[in-house]
Amino acid sequence: MTVPDPHALLFAQLDPARAQALTAEALSACDDGELFLQFIASESFLFDDGRLKTADYSRDAGFGLRGVSGEMTGFAHANEISESAIRRAGETLRLLDPAQGQPTPPPRANNRHLYTDQSPLDTLGFAEKVRLLETIDAAARARDPRVVQVSASLAASWSVIEILRADGFTASDIRPLVRLNVSIVAESNGRRETGSFGLGGRRLYDDLFEPQTWNRAIDRALAQALTNLESVAAPAGEMTVLVGPGWPGVLLHEAVGHGLEGDFNRKGASAFSGRIGERVGAPGVTVVDDGTLLGQGGQGRRGSLSIDDEGTPTGETVLIEDGILKGYMQDRLNARLMGVAPTGNGRRESYAHAPMPRMTNTFMKAGNDDPGELLSRVRNGIFAKSFGGGQVDIVSGKFVFSCTEAYLIENGKLGAPIKGATLIGDGPTVLTRVKGIGNDLELDEGVGICGKGGQSVPAGVGQPSLLIEGLTVGGTG
């Protein structure tokens, strides 16, 4: 819903001046905190098995009131933005011990906006969105006689937020988000395999409806499915692995990124706790988190934010530089308790959740190695081109990731595609075993969803090609 003043959606039943006064009253005895107001509209379409299976539209509005005193947090939320509801929420904060020190200063001001204020939900009609998915379904089935199943989905959201603090600070943001996914099942000689591809970001639907965009999605998904039809059983054992650029950065995100978030390190629960200034990776390994990155058409990438959900402007945070641990991603609470500055990583799923340190776009910077030369170094190993799901233990950094597309490497050349490969290891150790870093940095195309503490937020990942020695591969061959 695009309106002349989007923030009017938040103040239909409440005067902004009263909201500010209520916030000051509720947080008067706290070190920190905020009133977080949000309106969100979202839609999703799924075209599967030759027909439109789901078409959902929803809208929601509400607030979250958080007070912080020392290490204690009080939080209450409601899906009604009114004076009476905020007053009731404020009663929760009376349970906190009164703050002992000076209130934490507000975030610095920010006038940079990384994405359009327009809502993607309004730019095209219902029929046009369904027609796109029908077209993708028909085009994918016509590509190859081995295609037996196509699933195409389209999703968008538009969120308006306002943050009010007791000290009079206010910040606002308007956040669009779109995503297109194509999944294809191919069958040959009784064997079925799947391929998928998706893309999106903080922008409008415009480019997703361009034929070259959705045709590329079909081509990528189909190529993966057909490749997997030819796959052989994956080998098992410790071996050299060449990890491809782009989306495989999800391994870095999970195995290393979460361990570099401030809360885990303040509590001493991360494998990286207390190690600032120490070598944690091979020379050349530089990992950053950057919430300011732009993508298609100069609009924000999926994980980008003009401000985080506490009002702090995002920026580039260097986490590891040339193998040396430099810092952590911080929200306001953990930054204050650790005596450092917030990094713009305080994020929440919605008004119904309290913020915590979370990644935005996390990636490893490019090196100087030619990817072809990295491949030529591998006598026997595998090339992991794309990943699916995985599991990670934050404390140890141990992970298990499944490959959705991978190949044998024999005498420096790509061999047969393999099926059932999993990569097993731990993030801190893997960083020290990096033997080559490609000059081909890629970021993912905008499909990442990060889960932590029961909250899901959009995130971006990326990396160049990485040559890693001594990684355990689980397989069936």
Kindly summarize this structure in a few lines.
With 477 residues, the protein is α+β, with helices and mostly antiparallel strands. The chain is built from 10 helices and 24 strands. Helices cover 20% and strands 39% of the residues.
Characterise the protein shown here.
This protein is α+β, with helices and mostly antiparallel strands. The protein contains ten helices and 24 strands. It has helices spanning 16-26, 83-92, 120-123, 126-143, 211-229, 249-257, 262-266, 332-338, 371-376, 427-432; strands at residues 32-48, 51-69, 72-78, 147-164, 170-188, 191-201, 232-233, 237-243, 287-290, 316-321, 324-325, 346-347, 356-357, 361-364, 380-392, 398-410, 413-419, 422-426, 434-437, 442-443, 449-452, 455-458, 460-463, 466-474. A six-stranded antiparallel β-sheet has the order 3-2-1-4-5-6. The protein has a six-stranded mixed β-sheet with strand order 11-10-9-14-23-20. The radius of gyration is 24 Å and the shape is globular.
